[in-house]
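batch job 7 of whatever, protein = UPF0102 protein UV74_C0013G0589
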Amino acid sequence: MDKTQNKSTGRLGEDLAEKFLRRKGYRVISRNFSTRYGELDLIGTKDGRLVFIEVKTKIGDRFGQPEEMINRKKVSQIMRIAQSFILRNKEIASKYPLHQVDAVCIVLGDDNSLVRLDHYENIGE
């Protein structure tokens, strides 16, 4: 899979995740927040919390599951990026003193149809 296809798969996954999260009562306030540490896919709020959301999307299961791409190192990276967001957006952060890291893992079929979407809450603990 080339970089263009990876980006479009990632974007499709982020769109699906955002739609799913909105239905669950999340309010998405930022997408693709970038720092020198990397990029956060989605940032949202729910129940008085600021939620930093990593989205992993794969086509098929030939090369493993999306969950396998989220390890301790990845969670630490997400938390560093989250700190950068908090420092750059003090007004928003002050409204939401509680924070959490979630992951949305998506598997698509070869035709980009949704096969599976799983939401893991508060993975940063």
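notes: The chain has one domain: 3-120.
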